[in-house]
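Customer escalation, tier 2.

The customer says the design service returned an amino acid string that "doesn't look like it belongs to this structure." They asked us to rerun it and document both sides in this ticket. The original structure tokens are below, unchanged.
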């Protein structure tokens, strides 16, 4: 299933694993031990040749579902049902996994057990929903793949440039805008989810750009379109300076980076839904906050 020299870049504190044995010991077995008879629930599972980077990729998003009975990467168990949110991207060579990028939303797991260490939160914390159209697993509309991908790439190019006074970017909304007026944006723990572009601004974008005004994107390992769905990821995707307060953490003025995964659903030439996974355990580490240690303190460990 994997090449002998397979490399899996994972969320902090797991980070890089090389070879099947390291992947099994460092990622797969800990999840199985923590969740017991866990089930995997894919809500999005798409694939294609990348527009950036190299090779053929598969991107998936969903939850590992099970009773949380043993510690997982420092998160304290509660013995109850949890939904462990994941984003997984795999580069395939000759039918085997040669490379993987994995983000598991550990802060969301901390939230579910009642010991959330992020000082402030923005939007609505919730389970990531499946696409409203319920067709995210192996979509069957290849004729729309390129148009969907181009729509998202155009949006990202314009989103990068914004007015520092009101944080607006050309073409994002309104007649002919990239985003549907009823767009839904699903973010990681700490940011949460929001509805409509004003909600996206209020509960994510303004706070992020205020904290990291010089952020620059890039370094994408893949960008793929599959029917109405698009996936992109960067490792790291953003480099920036922590110049303002963010989620309760005062500015440190330190340079830092951010690992990012995005998946989108397009509908009639606009973006309707966006699922986002960010490695916030690592980001907070850069900001001088050990989320795992704070979580354990809150949980009484």
């Amino acid at each position: 299933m994997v090449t002998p020299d397979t490399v899996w870049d994972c969320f902090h504190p797991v980070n890089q694993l090389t070879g099947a044995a390291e992947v099994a010991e460092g990622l797969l077995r800990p999840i199985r031990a923590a969740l017991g008879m866990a089930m995997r629930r894919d809500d999005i599972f798409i694939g294609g040749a990348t527009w950036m980077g190299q090779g053929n990729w598969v991107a998936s998003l969903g939850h590992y579902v099970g009773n949380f009975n043993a510690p997982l990467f420092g998160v304290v168990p509660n013995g109850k049902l949890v939904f462990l949110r994941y984003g997984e991207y795999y580069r395939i060579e000759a039918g085997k996994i040669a490379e993987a990028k994995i983000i598991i939303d550990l802060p969301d797991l901390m939230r579910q057990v009642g010991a959330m260490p992020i000082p402030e939160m923005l939007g609505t914390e919730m389970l990531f929903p499946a696409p409203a159209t319920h067709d995210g697993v192996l979509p069957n509309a290849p004729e729309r793949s390129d148009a969907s991908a181009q729509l998202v790439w155009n949006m990202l190019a314009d989103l990068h440039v914004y007015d520092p006074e009101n944080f607006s970017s050309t073409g994002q909304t309104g007649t002919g805008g990239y985003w549907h007026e009823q767009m839904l944006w699903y973010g990681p723990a700490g940011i949460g989810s929001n509805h409509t572009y004003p909600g996206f601004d209020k509960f994510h974008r303004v706070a992020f750009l205020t904290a990291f005004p010089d952020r620059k994107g890039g370094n994408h390992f893949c960008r793929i379109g599959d029917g109405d769905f698009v996936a992109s990821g960067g490792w790291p995707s953003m480099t920036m300076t922590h110049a303002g307060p963010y989620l309760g953490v005062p500015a440190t003025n330190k340079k830092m980076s951010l690992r990012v995964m995005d998946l989108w659903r397009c509908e009639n030439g606009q973006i309707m839904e966006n699922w986002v996974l960010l490695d916030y355990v690592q980001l907070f580490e850069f900001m001088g906050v050990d989320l795992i240690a704070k979580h354990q303190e809150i949980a009484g460990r």
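Tier 2 assessment: The sequence is consistent with the input. The longest strand covers residues 81-93. The longest helix spans residues 19-35. Sent an explanation to the customer and offered a walkthrough call.
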